[in-house]
Every structure is written in C-alpha cells, then in structure tokens.
Design brief:
Blueprint: H1 2-18, H2 22-27, E1 32-39, E2 42-51, E3 57-63, E4 69-77, E5 83-90, E6 95-103, E7 109-116, E8 121-129, E9 135-142, E10 147-152
Antiparallel strand pairs: 1-2, 2-3, 3-4, 4-5, 5-6, 6-7, 7-8, 8-9, 9-10
Length: 158
C-alpha cells in the first residue's frame, strides 16, 4: 500500500513538473527543470530539460531506470517559436534520429521528415488543413514516399 501511495505521488508530481507551459517558463525565467524518482530510499534521475530565454525546450535528457542517460533530444526553433529540428542522441552521444519540421506561411505544420543517424530518410508525415486552419489529415510515408497510413480528423460543430 505504501508503495502504491509513493508511485501515485510520483506520477502527480511528474505531471505537475511537465505541466509548466512555455509562457510560465518564460515568465519565471526558468533555465532548467529536473525530475527524479525516489524508490526504496534511492533518488534516481528521470529527466532534465533546458530552456532558452523564450521558454522553448532546447535540450531534453531522459534517463533509464538506473539513472544513466538513455537519450538526449536537442531542439531548434524559428523566430515564431515553432520547432524546426529535433536531433535525438543515444547515451554515447551518437546521433540516432533527426526530425525536420516545415511550416506554411500561416504557421501551420506541413511536414515532418525523419532521418536516421547517417542522414538517410526513414519516414515523413505530411499535414493538410481546411479553410479554417483545422488539421484534416496526416499522411505517413515510408522512405520511398509510399503512403503507409492516413489519419483523418473530422470536427463536429453543430
């Protein structure tokens, strides 16, 4: 029972930590955040996030159950604060995956292209919007451009 209470408390605290919005991070001038797990009296790192002055996540480190680095994501943004690039590194700082995101003139995400550590394309998501700017479709394509799946979004307004 005590273990259940500890786990529940951890889950609540974790979600509260990640619940800080970009606006709150910027307003409070937060430069970094860290989450840890206390289990059986031992404190283990769970995640660390670094922020820029605009409140954007610029680096996120995730740890395994032993507290060792599992992966590191490094992010780049455009002047509007939209994510342009996400590079994922493994525990040895080797590039594992890179995601490049593109936007249209309205600031809507139009494409996410994924590449392996050597720069070879692995998959792509393309997005379609209606006249109101609502996302209507996300297509997933393989490295050869073949459609793997299509996710449709339907909105009910009445």
């Amino acid at each position: 029972m005590n273990h259940l209470i500890t786990c529940s408390l951890f889950i609540i605290l974790t979600f509260q930590t990640f619940a800080q919005s970009k606006k709150e991070v910027k307003a409070h001038k937060i430069k970094a955040s860290m989450t840890t797990i206390i289990e059986n009296g031992k404190t283990i790192n769970d995640a660390k996030t670094l922020f820029d002055a605009k409140g954007n996540e610029i680096e996120k480190t995730e740890y395994n159950k032993e507290g060792a680095i599992k992966s590191v994501h490094k992010f780049k943004y455009n002047s509007d604060g939209d994510e342009l690039e996400d590079e994922q590194y493994d525990a040895t700082n080797k590039l594992v995956e890179k995601k490049i995101t593109k936007y249209n003139l309205l600031g809507e995400k139009t494409e996410e292209a994924y590449f392996d550590g050597l720069g070879k394309p692995t998959k792509k998501h393309t997005y379609v919007y209606d006249g109101k700017g609502l996302k209507t479709e996300r297509k997933t394509l393989d490295a050869d451009g073949k459609v793997i799946s299509v996710k449709k979004h339907v909105y009910v307004t009445k």
